[in-house]
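Researcher: Go.
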Amino acid sequence: MQTYNFSNFKDAVDRQIQSRLGCSIHDLADYPYADAWCVCDEDLAFIAPEDTERRERVYKNHVSSTVDDVANECYEDANPYTQGVDY
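Model: Structure:
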């Protein structure tokens, strides 16, 4: 049974970021990982502990969406004009 905590969440996100972007989360601009973990933890709280498959699926989905958010934020920071023009 996997332990779901903030440290494991950040490690999982970091591993995926390293494989996707080639750098660590520590090399990137600040991202609210604690907020992402709080949402994940809240969703996990509503799943029965014995439903390990669903808990793992929810956890992996939150890790994946956090990785997508970080990658999109990096893209927007590198290409500021993709967001449109501010008037």
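Model: The chain has a mean pLDDT of 90.
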